[in-house]
């Protein structure tokens, strides 16, 4: 089966890591759906088409039950060809100085929103996508977790760390449940990747982090996209429930 028949849905695909994954999968022949809350999704999809790929942009808030329930209609004739889901949408709110808020100052509303987007959003979208993947007896689900879920983080907030840790547990459950259907579920745990999200951190935070990366630099969205492309491929067919650290060695178990 060629990649042409495997539509890839990338949540949070408008920019950063998601945009790089969408572009890479499109370059490999997958028709790609760039799903995002940001208008930028249209330009991202257009850039993929300009490069010779197939792409559609759809408005999607992964935390909105009704919007997720409308995914089959939003994808139209592509829904039945869904083969790859990349749960990439995420937020990492910080305090006004770009530093993580101490737990004692964290508004409950901010906690709830991060859990809703980073964890419940992945649940909602994964659940919605199970029927077409099961029907074809083949699928790839990829979660973007974080180094914050692998070791202590001095940059991300407690809500982010909790949500990403939960996402890893959810991925294990999903991998166990969907294995018999030919669907693999794997996680990528990026270290520090140079994206709009990472650039929102306090001055000096990224340089300080980079100083402790064995490979000597922050990651690029393309570094993560290469690993996502492998996880989406036939070659990764016997890999499920795994977490791959993509951080230049910044985290080593
Ligand atoms: P980013 O902020 O640059 O991009 C995230 C994208 O997700 C944006 O396009 C945003 O609009 C979209 N998004 C946010 N909320 C959404 C929602 N409710 N519904 C749909 N789309 C939504 O961030 P990034 O750095 O590219 O991060 C991508 C993923 O990788 C995130 O899950 C993030 O937590 C994870 N991650 C990033 C880093 C890093 O260093 N950049 C490290 C570890 C993990």
From TrEMBL:
Gene Ontology MF terms: oxidoreductase activity
Keyword annotations of the record: Oxidoreductase
Top-level taxon in the UniProt lineage: Bacteria
Ketoreductase domain segment(s): 6-191
Keyword DNA repair on entry: no
SUPFAM superfamilies: NAD(P)-binding Rossmann-fold domains
InterPro entries found in the cross-reference section: KR_dom, NAD(P)-bd_dom_sf, SDR, SDR_fam
Entries under Pfam families matching the protein: adh_short_C2 (PF13561)
Family per record: Belongs to the short-chain dehydrogenases/reductases (SDR) family.
Record's protein name: 3-oxoacyl-[acyl-carrier protein] reductase
Source organism of the structure: Belnapia rosea
